[in-house]
Design goal:
The chain is of the alpha+beta class and 460 residues long. It has two domains: 229 residues, 4-Layer Sandwich (Glutamine Phosphoribosylpyrophosphate, subunit 1, domain 1), CATH 3.60.20; 176 residues, Rossmann fold, CATH 3.40.50. The strands form six sheets. A seven-stranded antiparallel β-sheet has the order 3-2-4-1-10-9-11. Strands 5-6-7-8-12-13 form a six-stranded antiparallel β-sheet, with no helix packed on it. Strands 18-17-21-22-23 form a five-stranded parallel β-sheet, sandwiched between helices. A hairpin with a 4-residue loop joins β5 and β6. The site of iron/sulfur cluster has 11 residues, from α6 and α15.
């Protein structure tokens, strides 16, 4: 998500900010802008941002200084145009454009209660629940917003473009990342990751804190909290896989964490080998750390077709299989006759790992030792990462040796939970109340899941 507050080039800046965040989802993209007449205009559609806005000159038609933008990763809600954000909601007395990242875990109860009271939902995702909750309440905008946020459970970052401005919200555990930047030529931006700041000429100010609502008034950043029951629990998978290596999350650089994970992985499970190769792109940093610690060459044994999306975030298994085949290719002259340590950041379903091992063997590698720079994923994510079915998870179905046989590697080891915590601490000290969510590795979920844990028939 990316938003601009108080800059006349809001639409264009949002386009470039979103472009830096395209790795977070490829199913849809959209930009909404509040113009001087108080109208909200939107461009959105399915596919990549560059498909939706094929000619950035079109953004000149979206005049205004306040904007919110979104690229979609469909962890909840059906595919299709209806769930592409921002969602527009025009009432007789106020207008909203909503962009949202995360997963609300008490959706079913809230939605059925709201529908019983007459609310009509336009999409199947979580995004518009907040507006329906606000419409039930009386009082000033911020009071209605705070009271409504208190009713939500789970992970949610919201951008709300309203007649009164742009509001950025982070859930009480800060599960998804969200930061604030200042534009050199006037105004502020909010962004999912810091990698989106530099491209628009913004400098990092700080992260939005768990439980915080941030907005701008008279050119100043304003802050209020909807709850004091807050504790940092940012998603570990953001560090492991999702975020770009040049992003800092909670002021910890993603590349530094991944490199340190590779170092810890070497100390825990090194093996005799000729070279280290990382699975591009998100495992390159961990491979650098492992190779440095091992004193082995860090080679480019796999090449990535940069015009294919990330396999993990493809919505069906058939698309994921096809995605792996299109995405990665070995370099035979590099790997032929070599004993390889192959570093991957995670194993979810095992699709990619199995295919990679086969490709490298076909290319002439003599030994393939798979090393994974995070612990086994054994539990589903309920906070917006699409690993909702336990039966999809290889580490839930199989033990370590069975997984090794499944992917056909000569050896397989994962970084331990303790090693992961060490990597976090060595890349930046974990302050009090500044932890991470590791629920998909430990089963210990940081929010109350008693009301309703899983949606759409998905059970843990
Ligand atoms: S369960 Fe896993 S993927 Fe989901 S928020 Fe927690 S660490 Fe991230």
């Amino acid at each position: 998500m990316f938003a601009v507050i108080g800059n006349p080039n809001a639409a264009s800046l949002t386009y470039y900010g979103l472009h830096s965040l395209q790795h977070r989802g490829q199913e849809g993209a959209g930009i909404s802008v509040l113009n001087a007449n108080g109208d909200i205009n939107t461009i959105k559609g399915e596919g990549l941002l560059t498909d939706v806005v094929s000619d950035p000159a079109i953004l000149g038609k979206l005049s205004g200084s306040y904007s919110v933008g979104h690229i979609r990763y469909p962890s909840n809600g059906a595919k299709g145009y209806d769930n592409v954000q921002p969602l527009m909601m025009k009432m007789s007395d106020e207008k909203f454009a909503i962009a949202y990242n995360g997963n609300i875990t008490n959706t079913i109860a809230l939605r059925s209660e709201l529908e019983d009271q007459g609310s009509v939902f336009h999409a199947s995702g979580d995004a518009e629940i907040l507006v329906h909750l606000m419409r039930r309440k009386k009082g000033a905008f911020l009071d209605r917003l705070k009271a409504s946020l208190l009713e939500l459970e789970g992970a949610f970052n919201y951008f709300i473009l309203h007649d009164s401005g742009v509001y950025a919200v982070r859930d009480r555990k800060g599960i998804r990342p969200l930061c604030i930047g200042k534009l050199t030529d006037g105004g502020y931006v909010f962004a999912s990751e810091t990698c989106a700041l530099g491209i628009v000429g913004a400098t990092y100010i700080r992260d939005v804190m768990p439980g915080e609502i941030v907005y701008v008034e008279d050119g100043k950043i304003m802050s209020t909290f909807f709850t004091d029951d807050c504790l940092h629990a940012i998603c570990l998978m953001e560090y492991v896989y999702f975020a770009r290596p040049d992003s800092d999350l909670e002021e910890r650089n993603v590349h530094s964490f991944r490199k340190q994970s590779g170092i810890e992985l070497y100390h825990e499970s090194h093996v005799d080998a000729d070279m280290v190769i990382g699975v591009p792109d998100s495992s390159i940093s961990a491979a650098t750390g492992y190779a440095e610690a091992a004193g082995l060459p860090n080679e480019m044994g796999l090449i990535k077709n940069r015009y294919v999306g990330r396999t993990f975030i493809k919505p069906t298994q058939a698309l994921r299989e096809q995605g792996v085949r299109m995405k990665l290719a070995p370099i035979p002259s590099v790997v032929k006759g070599k004993r390889l340590v192959v570093i991957d950041d995670s194993i979810v379903r095992g699709t990619t790992s199995r295919r990679i091992v086969q490709m490298l063997r076909d290319a002439g590698a003599t030994e393939i030792h798979m090393r994974v720079s995070s612990p086994p994923i054994m539990y589903p994510c309920v906070y917006g990462v699409d690993t909702s079915h336990r039966e999809d998870l290889l580490a839930h179905q199989l033990d370590l040796e069975e997984m090794r046989r499944h992917i056909k590697a000569d050896s397989l080891e994962f970084l331990s939970r303790e090693g992961t915590v060490k990597a976090l601490q060595r890349s930046k000290s974990l302050g009090p109340n500044c932890g991470v969510c590791m629920a998909c590795f430990t089963g210990e979920y940081p929010t109350d899941l008693s009301a309703e844990s899983f949606k759409n028939g998905k059970q843990a």
